[in-house]
Amino acid sequence: SHVASEAVLGALPVGQNSPQQPPLGLYAEQLSGTAFTAPRATNQRSWLYRIAPSVGGSASEPLPSRLQADFSDAAAVAAPDPHRWRPLPLPTGAPVTFVEGLVTMCGAGGPALKEGVAIHLYSCNAPMLDTAFSNSDGDLLLVPQAGALHVVTEFGRMSVEPREVCVVPRGVRFAASPAAGSSGARGYVLETFGPHFRLPELGPIGANGLAEPRDFVYPHAWYEDRTCDFTVVTKLLGRLYATKRTHSVFDVVGWHGNYAPYKYDLRRFHAVNTVSVDHPDPSIFTVLTVPTNEPGVAAADFVIFPPRWLCAEGTFRPPYFHRNCMSEFMGLIDGVYDAKKGGKGGFEPGGCSYHGAGTPHGPDAAAVASASQADTSRPTKFDGGLAFMFETSALLRLTPFAADPSNGMLDTDYGACWEGLPRLFSSAGVANGSNGK
User: Fold this and answer.
1) DSSP codes joined into one string, 274-295
2) Which of 22, 86, 154, 341 counts the highest number of beta carbons within 10 A?
3) In which region does residue 114 sit, left (phi positive, over 0), alpha (psi from -120 to 50) or beta (all else)?
């Protein structure tokens, strides 16, 4: 949708985008999210009216980071086995900002050809003072897990807490900091190198359901007119570069367009589910998607497993055993996931798991034992936690950090969760190949 917002009445010109003299002595600047000639249905851009244009600044200097955009065989590790990690620790002692606390876990493709994805974690305890971050490589989906984020953008400010998510499109400058009074913040980041996030098609579901468009919130214009030593950190082809400015870049007094950051409260998701038998495919819980050119196949899906009623009769209600042509990276915001043991030694809030294409996965032995004997004649409500999945058609590789057992996060005993599955098959009285007839 097209949004218009003013921090000062009259900041937006009327009837044109780039007048000879914009109102209030501002500069008009367009931020393009797609090619000029993209079809109108997918064309994205916004006009920003700011105190100073974005040009200028010192020469860029490289910065160290734990981010990665090279997922070639020489730079990343293939992962045919299931993987699970404990939470990324919150920093103690020295201050760590959001950008400094980012670390890449896995990915595929790359930003140079605008194809593929990367998945990161963040853990920080310090604000981004006089600093902005801009990602030239792709869109960022931020999923807070512990502690709220105060996100300042060129378009305005947003508070994003656990059970909410925030999307910052490619090229938008922002600063993410732990909320005031917080000891730190931790969460997950899905980066997409290609097209932008959009709502999934609803198909036979109809006109309503899943994530409703009206529940996505855009920031109201906000600005600061402040001269200072200001740093803009840009991520380009997986590397960070810093340039110095003489003023804050959060100086947009008004803006309009359809290319802007936004947030969404996952508690507003309208879940649909089976009312007869069988466990439905998790695609019915898709919040946002990034499509490919192949119909129905996503470069990235953001899927949640929300509180919901379970009422399928005579059905194994947890997620089924599965081998997927897609790659699945899961995280847990809070509580437990209904197919895995929770808490220490299990799937912990803040932890994550990865099951690549073709990798067998499914509920652990304890979940199978419980669900196989459950009374399914009565509906039950699952409200014990909120898990999510980043799913992609790409074949992901792990970064050296993610594959390193010495990082203290890799759960090397993950595969043991299936060791207790019993062999219950009995062919007594049935001839092999008779199909029971």
Assistant:
1) -SSSSPPPGGGGEEEEEE-SST
2) 154
3) left
What are 271's two structure tokens? 């879940």
- Cα torsion at 93, 95, 97, 101 (round to 10°)? -30
Query: What's the Cα-to-Cα distance from 96 to each of 127, 159, 352, rounded to whole Å?
Result: 8, 19, 22
120 is catalytic: no
Active-site option among 196, 247, 279, 322: 279
Strand pairing partners for 373? none
The secondary structure element, H or E, covering residue 400 is helix 400-403
- Bridge partners, 382 (sequence order): 308
- Please report which confidence band the pLDDT of residue 341 belongs to, taking 50, 70 and 90 as the band edges: confident
CA dist 67 and 414 (Å) reads 26
In one-letter notation, the amino acid at residue 340 is: K
> What is the spatial distance between Cα 347 and Cα 332, in angstroms, rounded to a whole number?
8
Are 291 and 198 a contacting pair, CB within 8 Å? yes
Q: What is the DSSP letter of 307?
A: S
**DSSP state string for 202-246:** -GGG-SS-BS-GGGEEPPPP-----EEEEEEEEEETTEEEEEEEE
Amino acid at 71: F
> Measured between alpha carbons, how far is 101 from 82 in angstroms, rounded to an integer?
25
Encoded tokens for 73: 């065989």
3-state class (DSSP) for residue 374: coil
Burial of 128 (0-12, 13-18, 19+ CB in 10 A): buried
pTM: 0.96
Q: CB of 163 within 8 A of CB of 266?
A: yes
Q: Which residue has the tokens 């950008």?
A: 99
Encode pLDDT of 133-173 as tens digits: 999 999 999 999 999 999 999 999 999 999 999 999 999 99
- Residue 344, amino acid: K
Provide the token pair at 315: 């059905």
Q: Are 256 and 5 in contact (CB under 8 A)?
A: yes
Element housing 29 (H / E): strand 27-32
Partner residues linked to 352 by β-bridges: 85, 331
DSSP letter for 377, please.
T
pLDDT tens, residue by residue, 22-75:
999 999 999 999 999 999 999 999 999 999 999 999 999 999 999 999 999 999
